[in-house]
Design a protein that fits this description.
single chain, alpha+beta, 8-stranded antiparallel beta sheet, globular
């Protein structure tokens, strides 16, 4: 028997058919090898204009769980749930010695909503100018862009601060991006930071030679765009670790999709997050 979801709001109620797992968006993964310079690229992308989770359609003011999901977890739609799940798997897979570049506009547009520990995490980082900007629509574009407000390179942020800083960023008109890199040799850190500050025509090539890997995660703010993650490395071992990330993330995503299809309520989304993440 089919189950309908009642949509409440305005003067009428609307009935929407429940989505099946086979109707939900699934990630695609691609791998590329460049000969000169020698560089491997790992890409995860989602299809545009497709929902990754079924979602409720009633107002948050009539449901305490929706309010808790938004206030405690910064999750208010299917995309932010997907972002949270992917980023927690990414952090668990990369280990120590990884760095996150948080955009500077957080300080002017999302600063007041952060916890004190999040603001301290941002402030203890190294100021820089450039970050990677990625956008995926009918094709992928990735560029190094400067930012007028000083950005912050933070080493090993806790996931709670990472997630809240990321989700508080207003992004640009179509995407919200965050840049990462891993550096097992700390002697290279001054040279890496320099690449994030000064203008360079060969920033990616130089960064690949210094870091274990670097990359960017992009979350769409427009229905015409989709989530993507791009990682660059000269190490075959890093590519193997990303394969492990893919397998573990896909197992979690598919299970979360099955759970949300069987019980499309905000309380179930809270259960999924609580099982995986401690904020």
């Amino acid at each position: 028997m089919g189950i309908d979801v009642i949509r409440l709001g305005g003067d009428q109620t609307q009935v929407e058919p429940r989505m099946g797992v086979d109707q939900l968006a699934q990630p695609s993964f691609q791998y590329y090898n460049l000969p000169n310079p020698s560089l491997s690229i790992w890409l995860m992308s989602m299809p545009t204009q497709q929902s990754v989770f079924p979602w409720w359609r009633y107002e948050s003011k009539i449901d305490e769980d929706i309010h808790a999901l938004s206030e405690s977890w910064a999750v208010s739609n299917p995309q932010s749930l997907f972002d949270c799940l992917f980023l927690t798997h990414l952090q668990k897979s990369v280990g120590a010695n990884w760095f996150v570049v948080f955009p500077g506009n957080i300080k002017t547009q999302g600063w007041g909503s952060l916890r004190e520990m999040d603001r301290e995490s941002f402030k203890r980082g190294q100021s820089c100018v450039y970050h990677l900007h990625a956008a995926f629509q009918d094709r992928l574009t990735v560029n190094w862009v400067p930012f007028w407000e000083p950005q912050s390179i933070v080493r090993n942020p806790g996931f709670g601060s990472l997630w809240r800083l990321f989700s508080s960023s207003p992004g640009d008109e179509v995407t919200r991006c965050v840049t990462f890199f891993s550096l097992s040799n700390p002697r290279f850190l001054p040279d890496v930071v320099k690449l994030f500050i000064e203008n360079s025509d060969h920033r990616s090539e130089k960064l690949a030679a210094l870091t274990d890997w670097f990359g960017v995660y992009s979350s769409p703010l427009s229905a015409n765009h989709a989530a993507c993650a791009v990682f660059y490395s000269q190490s075959k071992e890093v590519m193997k670790r990303l394969e492990i990330l893919k397998g573990e993330f896909m197992a979690t995503l598919k299970e979360a999709q099955r759970e949300m299809v069987s019980d499309t309520r905000p309380r179930n989304a809270i259960r999924i997050l609580s099982r995986l993440i401690a904020l």
